[in-house]
């Protein structure tokens, strides 16, 4: 990169530090969900939902990674997972009864996330999969993705476990790697060995899984060299898809992060440089960039969807269009049905109590029903800015029957300073486009249109 380009990037990364900007995995972002939700609203919103994607949450992990902001619990006691899956099955059956349905038909996507779902034993996996999936019929094999998140560690993953997962129907596996560097792993309390991961990825491919990998930039003591070494190792394993998430350091909200010295977090300039060099490296190795932070091999369903403008920003990062609506099961799981966000109880104890009493285990005041203004901004932020990097004014005007320039007058005034800094261009009267550099700051462009932040 030329000297003046570096200086420009340094200025921009300091002016537009992403540290406190939402990832826009939803709009409004979950910290703004304050509506009291109940069973009646759940049933009502489901009645307008078409074929939701199903999500099952498994909170137990072998140990806690200090950077992690997921809803998880730490235990090596297999009995705890026995108790958990009993409640998960009960919640699943309760929801079927509440919705007066015998099951879910033509399901195109089902995902097990966590926590660490691969921390379950073979018997537990078999038991909970069969207990729930006897009420689920899947769409044709080619159209379905049945996916699972995994910690790539031989303590949790064996050939037998992978084979069982494949035999019962899973076809996508997503390995959280983050970074292979030993010093970084020590600080974040992880222990991911390159040899083990290579072996596990190899077995997964041999069994026919589509392999996805999650990496992270902005970790403590991480620099361009560490990330580049990790990426090269990952590229040599040829995953179908890589998600490169940014680490968000919020020690006040996530107590475990207090174990990480704040001074070890790379500054905004280094983070932008890492994001840029990651992009260059993946493109150089034949990957296609989807949205803000995903890289896929050509032919991957996400690549096909991206070329047809059918990618959506969601809690999984980026997905194909038909994952827009989803129903979550388990501790802290989120559902988006009709126009409503529902969040399951965040305390595992409260979740067990509610399920045992045959109540819908949702947090009372942690939901949200989209207003027309939310829907409009949701499309603008999550679809146009975060996926397509361009705002199509007439598209929004036609769909929502508004005059864009008067509806968004204050926002357009604020956007002028981003235009002056070269992050967006006003191409013609109809389109606002994020520039090549502006794409690194897409979340800042989105924030201009966020009514809540
Ligand atoms: S990163 Fe994954 S394995 Fe680590 S604590 Fe979080 S959910 Fe568990």
What's this, in brief?
The protein is an alpha/beta fold and 453 residues long. The protein has helices spanning 3-15, 39-47, 78-99, 122-133, 159-168, 182-188, 194-207, 224-236, 268-284, 301-307, 348-356, 372-388, 393-400, 404-407, 409-420, 442-448; strands at 53-58, 60-61, 73-74, 104-107, 109-114, 136-138, 145-150, 172-178, 210-217, 241-246, 287-290, 294-297, 311-314, 317-320, 326-329, 334-337, 340-343, 368-369, 390-392, 424-426, 431-434.
Question: What is the fold's blueprint, element by element?
Answer:
Layout: H1 3-15, H2 39-47, E1 53-58, E2 60-61, E3 73-74, H3 78-99, E4 104-107, E5 109-114, H4 122-133, E6 136-138, E7 145-150, H5 159-168, E8 172-178, H6 182-188, H7 194-207, E9 210-217, H8 224-236, E10 241-246, H9 268-284, E11 287-290, E12 294-297, H10 301-307, E13 311-314, E14 317-320, E15 326-329, E16 334-337, E17 340-343, H11 348-356, E18 368-369, H12 372-388, E19 390-392, H13 393-400, H14 404-407, H15 409-420, E20 424-426, E21 431-434, H16 442-448
Parallel strand pairs: 1-5, 1-15, 2-3, 4-6, 5-7, 7-8, 8-9, 9-10
Antiparallel strand pairs: 10-12, 11-12, 13-14, 16-17, 17-18, 19-21, 20-21
Bound molecules: iron/sulfur cluster (SF4).
The site of iron/sulfur cluster has 11 residues, from loops.
Task: Please explain how this structure is put together.
This protein has 453 residues and is α/β, with parallel strands linked by helices. The chain has 2 domains: 33-329, Alpha-Beta Horseshoe (pyruvate-formate lyase- activating enzyme), CATH 3.80.30; 372-448, Arc Repressor Mutant, subunit A, CATH 1.10.10. It contains 16 helices and 21 strands. The strands form 6 sheets. The chain has a 9-stranded mixed sheet, with helices on both faces. A 3-stranded antiparallel sheet has the order 16-17-18. α8 (224-236) runs parallel beside α9 (268-284). The longest helix has 22 residues, at 78-99. The protein is globular. The site of iron/sulfur cluster has 11 residues, from loops. Iron/sulfur cluster binds at residues 61, 64-65, 68, 70, 72, 114-116, 151, 176.
């Amino acid at each position: 990169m030329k000297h003046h380009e570096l200086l420009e990037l340094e200025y921009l990364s300091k002016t537009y530090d992403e540290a406190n900007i939402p990832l826009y995995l939803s709009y409004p972002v979950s910290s703004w969900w304050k509506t009291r939700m109940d069973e009646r609203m759940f049933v009502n919103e489901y009645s307008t939902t078409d074929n939701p994607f199903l999500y099952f949450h498994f909170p137990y992990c072998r140990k806690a990674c200090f950077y992690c902001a997921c809803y998880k619990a730490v235990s090596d006691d297999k009995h705890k997972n026995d108790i958990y899956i009993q409640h998960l099955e009960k919640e699943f059956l309760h929801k079927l009864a509440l919705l007066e349905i015998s099951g879910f038909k033509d399901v195109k996507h089902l995902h097990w996330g966590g926590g660490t779902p691969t921390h379950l034993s073979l018997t537990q996996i078999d038991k909970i999969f069969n207990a729930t999936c006897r009420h689920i019929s899947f769409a044709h094999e080619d159209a379905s993705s049945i996916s699972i998140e995994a910690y790539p560690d031989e303590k949790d993953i064996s050939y037998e476990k992978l084979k069982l997962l494949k035999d019962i129907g899973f076809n996508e596996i997503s390995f959280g790697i983050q970074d292979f560097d030993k010093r970084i792993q020590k600080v974040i309390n992880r222990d991911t060995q390159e040899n083990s991961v290579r072996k596990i990825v190899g077995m997964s491919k041999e069994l026919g899984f589509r392999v996805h990998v999650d990496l992270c930039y902005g970790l403590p003591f991480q620099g361009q060299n560490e990330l580049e070494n990790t990426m090269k190792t990952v590229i040599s394993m040829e995953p179908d898809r890589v998600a490169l998430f940014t680490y968000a350091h919020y020690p006040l909200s996530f107590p475990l992060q207090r174990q990480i010295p704040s001074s070890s977090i790379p500054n905004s300039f280094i983070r932008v440089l890492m994001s840029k060099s990651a992009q260059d490296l993946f493109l150089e190795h034949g990957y296609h960039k989807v949205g803000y932070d995903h890289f896929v091999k050509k032919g991957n369903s996400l690549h096909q969807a991206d070329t047809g403008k059918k990618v959506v920003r969601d809690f999984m990062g980026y997905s194909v269009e038909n994952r827009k609506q989803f129903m979550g099961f388990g501790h802290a799981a989120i559902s988006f049905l009709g126009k409503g966000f529902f969040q399951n109880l965040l305390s595992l104890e409260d979740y067990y109590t509610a399920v045992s009493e045959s109540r819908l285990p949702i947090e009372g005041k942690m939901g949200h029903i989209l207003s027309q203004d939310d829907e409009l901004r949701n499309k603008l932020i999550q679809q146009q800015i975060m996926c397509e990097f361009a705002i199509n004014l007439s598209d929004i005007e036609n769909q929502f029957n508004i005059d864009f320039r008067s509806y968004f007058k204050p926002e357009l005034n604020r956007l002028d300073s981003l235009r002056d800094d070269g992050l967006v261009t006003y191409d013609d009267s109809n389109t606002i486009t994020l520039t090549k550099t502006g794409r690194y700051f897409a979340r800042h462009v989105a924030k201009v249109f966020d009514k809540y932040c």
